[in-house]
Design goal:
The structure is a homodimer. The first copy, chain A, is an alpha/beta fold. Chain A has a domain at 7-35 and 96-199: Rossmann fold. Helices cover 42% and strands 21% of the residues of chain A. Chain A has helices at 18-28, 58-66, 85-93, 104-113, 127-137, 142-156, 171-185, 194-199, and strands at 7-11, 32-34, 37-39, 53-55, 70-76, 79-84, 97-101, 118-123, 164-167. In chain A, the strands form two sheets. Chain A has a five-stranded parallel β-sheet, with helices on both faces. The longest helix of chain A has 15 residues, at 142-156. The termini of chain A are close together. Chains A and B meet through strand 8, helix 5, strand 9, helix 7 and helix 8 of A and strand 8, helix 5, strand 9, helix 7 and helix 8 of B.
């Protein structure tokens, strides 16, 4: 019996290691797809349409918005980014699980529009470790790092709105936990069709 | 940080294989304890107090009942059986997970008294397979088997009251699923203390 996939949303403070956890998950599962965003920004050399992003015009973006075709969206500088509802729903219908890495505001927008999504908050093992990771990563200036750390206290207040929290200490353990969450969510009674069970004489 | 254990309640139709799944779980985990019931029936040769059951008098049983010391109880013929709240709570406080195999009425009583318990409904892969298992088990007479099968339709109606449903087709997969459920439930935000996280500088 073909069952619908699950939309897994990973978010959390910058530097928690969401991206690395996502990569680990995609590697470990053959039926998991990383969500592809639409964006109005221009493609950069090496980027492929339909792989890194769906590149669309501002007119197309606004039409998608009007037609409620975006599970969430954000404006960054002059460009828009969003998660296309139809693409996600098609994958789920095909039985694929869709993985989405996104900031906290985006995650909460998605839960609102798509309540059956599963929100996972990824935290570093400690605030000190978070700071160390941001410095080690070397992509942000000192004042940006301080700003990010200043946001963390507020971001952590959103944890109760999430379905799960994963402490990303050892990457392997964090991937294991997200994998367990996915497996557990597939055992929810609302995903079980009693009618089908009785009609077909079983599930296998 | 020592975290409280989880009370996992496995129930479902007779013949679904709850007992085998429980044995598999106990074997695969070092921090899981099988709940021990109190009973007013006499011990049989080979049974040990505090291992198979806690053997108590009817007076003691009624006192436990009055003091709300039983998470559930049932009368079978002239004897009483129950799940002792204090024993379960002590184990959970020590960080052990407690596993309880029980009929559907008992499971629903427990959820009522102890809402943080996790209820798992175990079903056979099909009704036909359930019948085959009951016959193969050879412990029940034909009319008892028919009676059990007659109950199943009503029992399946209780699935929505459960937290999870596990289809016990291959034992190994069923044990894996329950293990994943336990791991996922340990990632619930309500088990995460933000205060501790910020105070100790982390969780490790």
């Amino acid at each position: 019996m073909q069952k619908k996939g699950i939309l897994l949303v990973l978010s959390g403070p910058s530097g928690a290691g969401k991206g690395t956890v996502c990569q680990g998950l995609i590697k470990s599962s053959s039926s998991m797809e990383l969500s592809i965003s639409v964006t109005t920004r221009e493609s950069r050399p090496g980027e492929e349409n339909g792989k890194n992003y769906f590149f669309i015009s501002k007119e197309e973006f606004h039409q998608m918005l009007e037609e409620d075709q975006l599970l969430e969206y954000a404006k960054v500088y002059d460009n828009y980014y969003g998660t296309p509802r139809r693409w996600v729903e098609e994958k789920l219908e095909q039985g694929e699980d869709v993985l989405l890495e996104i900031d906290i505001q985006g995650a909460l927008q998605i839960k609102n529009k798509f309540p059956e999504s599963i929100l996972i908050f990824v935290v570093p093992p400690s605030i000190n470790e978070l700071q160390a990771r941001l410095i080690r990563r070397g992509t942000d200036r000192d004042d940006v790092i301080q700003k990010r750390l200043g946001c963390v206290q507020g971001e952590l207040q959103e944890i109760p709105k999430y379905d799960y929290i994963v402490v990303n200490d050892k990457l392997e353990d964090a991937v294991d936990e997200v994998t367990a969450i996915l497996k557990a969510e597939k055992c929810r009674p609302k995903r079980f069709s009693l009618q089908k069970y009785l009609q077909t004489g079983g599930l296998s």
